Amino acid sequence: MVASAGAQAGEQGWSSRTAFILAAVGAAVGLGNIWRFPTLAGENGGGAFVLVYLVCVLLIGLPLMLSEFVVGRAGQSDAIGSVARVAEESRVSRKWRLFGGIEILAGFLILSFYSVVAGWVLYYIWLSGGDFFGNLFAGEPLRGAFSDMGQDAVSGMMGELFASPGRLIGVHALFMVATITIVASGVHDGIEKAATWLMPAFFFLLLGITIYGAFTGDFERALAFMFTPDFSKLTAPAINEALGQAFFSLSLASGALITYGAYVGREVNLAPTAATISVADTGVALIAGLMIFPIVFAVGLDPSAGPALIFQSLPVAFQTMPGGSLIGLLFFVLIFFAALTSSISLLEGPTAWAIDRFGLRRPAAAIMIGGGAFVIGIACALGYNVWSDVRPLGFWSIFAEADILDTLDGFTGKLMLPLAGLLMSIFVGWKADRRLVEMQSGLSGGLFLAWRFLVAWVCPIAVALILVFGLFPELLV
Ligand code: TRP
């Protein structure tokens, strides 16, 4: 048997099915759910976007997640090696490993800007926490760093962070070092351990803050906003955005899930596991919306404020609410936990590949890949100050306004992930040996046929159409 990434690095893979689920849910649940999903829903009119998103998760995301696990466990290697091995066993060209390569590159690029955004979270923890505990020890009334500050002052504070390359790069570095440290410690002692501690804490905080928001915020309006579709908002770019978000949020097509599939024992039934992970991830996205929008509406903020929604608006909102300074601090701790369990999975995909491909030791591989992503992240950070005029893909209509970070985010999410997903669906649906796929999937009879139909027909056609019209909306008029 070909040694898996885990085996070469002296790993045995996950210690249990629960550990696997926690790690995979940890990968899925992240900034995508709490920062990206509410932002995109807000920008694209709420209900209509949520509806398309849910359809994408069900018909495309879930089937492809199972496909990734199947390829990983059958291939017993990193994203490229696993595809090559399944291709060999199915007697088709090893060139199919191209989509494994796109996945690994996408994961690497996502990691680079992900760590920058997670750095903002660290900065906010620092600000709100420092002041909160300062007041606590001074015996003053509990308030946060943002108390008594108006919108302008908080915006100014965010502006200060963004104007300072040193601060942006510093917090980015801090987050990347934490990520590298965990991945270097191994699948079992690093990734699995982090997930089993952080994920339960995350769920606890999430429920707490949501209940708080339901009592203190405008819950009804949030519900109406998120679940009343306005079909005039369903443009091709909005649909592309929803599809890309489904890929991003489920951690599809970015190297992680094939790799995690390789660490899963033979006894685990993959289909119900993929369903559990998808449901958990989607549930967290919806709950995050129900956590954020009631507060947004209660204080009269604009739900389409974009990425600044969380970092600029919510700190102010929290201050106007009872106990808000503590809740504000906990809120950013919550996002930090979610981001960390995701970033370690983002790093693991390319790291496993570097271990397999070059025979590197795990710590060396994690440092080199994480270091590379850190350097690209620096460019993202500079895109807010010294390079703020740079529009890397400015010639392309949908990227015309995008700064460096937004360009990387959009390019991976709207293009690379769906493209790799498209190739994967053709590979698993048409090329890979049918018996091998069926056996690994854990599905049989009608359920297997339904899954195969989705993977072989629905995914490629839908993703191809959405890609073409989403990337070139001009074609529609
Ligand atoms: N799913 C993560 C989130 O929602 C982001 C992500 C995309 C990811 N691809 C990944 C995380 C691969 C881990 C591995 O924040």
TrEMBL record:
Keyword Lipid metabolism carried by entry: no
Subcellular location: Membrane
Entry annotated with the keyword Membrane: yes
Spans through the membrane: 18-35, 47-66, 104-126, 168-187, 194-215, 242-263, 275-301, 321-344, 365-387, 415-432, 453-472
Name of a matching Pfam family: SNF
InterPro entries (UniProt xref): Na/ntran_symport, SNS_sf, YocR/YhdH-like
Domain of life: Bacteria
Keywords recorded for this protein, A-Z: Membrane, Transmembrane, Transmembrane helix, Transport
Topological type in the membrane: Multi-pass membrane protein
Main location: membrane
Protein name: Sodium-dependent transporter
Source organism per UniProt: Pelagerythrobacter marinus
